Amino acid sequence: MRRFLLGMLVLGLVLSTAWAQQTRLRVFIGGQQRPDVMRKIFDAYEGRNPGIKVEIEVGGATSDQQQQYLTTVLTSRDPSLDVILIDIIRPAQYKAAGWADPLDRYLPRASRDALLKRYLPAYVRANIVDGTLVALPSFADAQFLFYRKDLLEKYGFKPPATWDEAIRQAQAILQGEKDPNLNGIGFMGNISEGTVCSFLLPIWAAGGDVTDDQGRLILTEDLARRSLQFWLDLMDKHRVSPPNMAEKAQDTIRREMQQGRWIFGTLFAYAWAHFQNDPDSRVKGKIGVTTMPRFEGGRSASCLGGWQWTISAFSRNKAQAYQLLRFLSSPEVAKVLAIEASNLPPFPELYKDPDILRANPWFADALPVVLNARARPVHPRYPEIADIMRRGLNAVLARTKTPEQAAKEIVQGLRAIYERR
Length: 421
Hints:
The protein is α/β, with parallel strands linked by helices and 421 residues long. Helices cover 48% and strands 14% of the residues.
């Protein structure tokens, strides 16, 4: 008995020592970034690294809500977070604020260059700010036009190549179905990050932009007004979008389309897995995906999305956090996210992976869209820039401002930021 108790005591000391030596890493992800899939990924990492325990902190259903929380945490220099998943629009902000631990300190220049060559170029550009590597890609993304394949086939339509075709098809299907719960074209119109993309899409499709290659403001009031008028016309003139689009967030459109309530939806890639796999989906097998429509005589334009892994500048476990970050930004993890969450990979070779294509057949045609997608403005004050654009569009959709009024205010607001010396 004494020998047994002594053995248990020794075992207890060993276990307590191992527990004391175990490093706990806390990772922040958003509510839409599939915490269930990420938990499986972290479990696999823990299995390979017995001295590491990874905890997940989930917050915010949108990029804006997540960043509001993270701003509070990082401004207070809170060390509780080690690795953070951030939107593609954030690296410049994080570098300017001193929130991200530069990854260059872990990578010799030759190793850094070799690593970055593996990723899609847009994500390399997004994550290097003034020569500093701020983050590494988790998954790529871009906007696509999701559509009710069954309804288009019923009425003899092919996926629309232009916005005029999309509008005519939506009008014909709505008239034919006579379903009061069915809507035509869904887009983001509430005060959220997705509405910035809505504002920019018609500008890009018309051949314009917010800034030139040197980052100087070139957006005109006329281009801004035409973008605002286009979305307003979908409600008031063409009657293919309901009158409450000012309330619609991206995931609202996704959930409603999943219930069978939209013919078209301008959504990011994550929606596919929900349509096909969620138990409450009414559209499994009925959804198609195509490129965003263009204007007559113009070209298709998509908004570049994607999420990146960065290390908190205030982490007390930076070396271990970097090892985890490298795993999370690897092709192995990108493949899991592609299959289980329909997240587009940041590695070009994975768009030909047979396992991924079995789960997401439409990925075969997705790479050119991602390669040609347009980035939102890169600026340390991007949150202010985004707020000006999305509030302007939201006000027009809510009919509290005319397109002319909102366009003038948008350009004036942007000018105050870009021309400030």
